[in-house]
TrEMBL record, chain A:
Organism of provenance: Microbispora cellulosiformans
Domain STAS span(s) in chain numbering: 3-112
Source taxonomy: Bacteria, Bacillati, Actinomycetota, Actinomycetes, Streptosporangiales
Keyword Repressor attributed: no
Stored InterPro entries: Anti-sigma_ant (IPR003658), STAS_dom (IPR002645), STAS_dom_sf (IPR036513)
Superkingdom field: Bacteria
Protein's UniProt keywords contain Repeat: no
Role description: Positive regulator of sigma-B activity. Non-phosphorylated RsbV binds to RsbW, preventing its association with sigma-B. When phosphorylated, releases RsbW, which is then free to complex with and inactivate sigma-B.
Gene3D superfamilies: STAS domain
GO molecular function, one term: anti-sigma factor antagonist activity
Keywords carried by this UniProt record: Phosphoprotein
Family: Belongs to the anti-sigma-factor antagonist family.
Protein name: Anti-sigma factor antagonist
PANTHER family: ANTI-SIGMA FACTOR ANTAGONIST TM_1081-RELATED (PTHR33495:SF2), ANTI-SIGMA FACTOR ANTAGONIST TM_1081-RELATED-RELATED (PTHR33495)
Length: 116, 142
């Protein structure tokens, strides 16, 4: 399955919906989108990974790169993910301590609202 | 011992094909369904690393993958032809730059997924061998 990307803004938060496989072939498209959003002043990003079927270390690198970019603007990049097979790679690499990972978009939005 | 060998041009688009082939053969070999995601991810990581190494050093050379059903183990060996001293896998960043802190993340992921891993770097290429338990009879016997 290819990668499908979509995004929309709610209040001060930009939600990026990702569907499909994030690997060495498709990750550059996600990277370009994150860079474009940051360049356009979107510094609080929520990446919804509930429809991601596959994520490898290239995809992790893109997410870490996005996090570095938004943090340079005092922003945030958080994730929505409940799939065990995706969460496993975050745990193996220790990145569960780096990203805020939420069970739903609503939960993430509530947390974001509290932090504002 | 049954062996399937696959060689592919070092293009990112082919890594998915390698993952799918490895997963299909792992299933047929009798690897438990619960482990198939780990096989898919580990093989993808090894092939991505090899593709990146070839793109830097020898883009015309194919990457080689061997899949073996060996006495109750499913064994995968990914071999590249790039000198491995300076080809640590890196995640791509903007404008073709790289994220240095992500070096070797792919191999770290493989080590966290495969039950048995051997990484053999060398001047003529790197070989990553990994294996998982499989049913001695495979699913073909069901």
């Amino acid at each position: 399955m290819d990668l499908k990307l979509d995004h929309h803004s709610e209040d001060n938060l930009t939600i990026v919906d990702v569907e499909g496989e994030i690997d060495v072939y498709t990750a550059p498209r996600l990277r370009e989108l994150l860079i474009d959003l940051v360049n356009k002043g979107n510094f609080h990003l929520l990446v919804n990974m509930e429809k991601v079927d596959f994520l490898d270390s290239t995809g992790l690198g893109v997410l870490v790169g996005g996090l570095k970019r938004v943090r340079a603007h005092d922003g945030s990049l958080e994730l929505v993910c409940t799939q065990e097979r995706i969460l496993k790679i975050f745990r193996i690499t220790g990145l569960t301590k780096v990203f805020g990972i939420y069970a739903s978009v609503e939960e993430a939005k509530e947390a974001h609202g509290r932090d504002k | 011992m049954a062996t399937v060998e696959l060689t592919f041009t070092a293009l990112p688009a082919h890594v998915r094909t390698a993952r799918l082939v490895a997963t299909a053969i792992a299933r047929r070999t009798g690897v438990a369904e619960a482990i198939l995601d780990e096989v898919r991810l580990a093989v993808g990581e090894a092939c991505s690393r090899a593709v990146e190494a070839h793109r830097l050093h020898c883009p015309g050379e194919p990457v080689r993958i061997e899949l073996r059903d060996d006495a109750g183990r499913f064994e995968v060996t990914v071999t590249d032809s790039a000198p491995s001293e300076d080809v640590a896998p890196r995640a791509p960043e903007t404008n073709g730059g790289l994220i240095p802190e992500m070096d070797n993340l792919g191999i770290a992921v493989i080590a966290g997924l495969a039950d048995d891993v051997e990484v053999l770097p060398g001047p003529k290429g790197m070989r990553i061998r990994m294996s998982w338990p499989a049913s001695p009879d495979g699913v073909a016997a069901l």
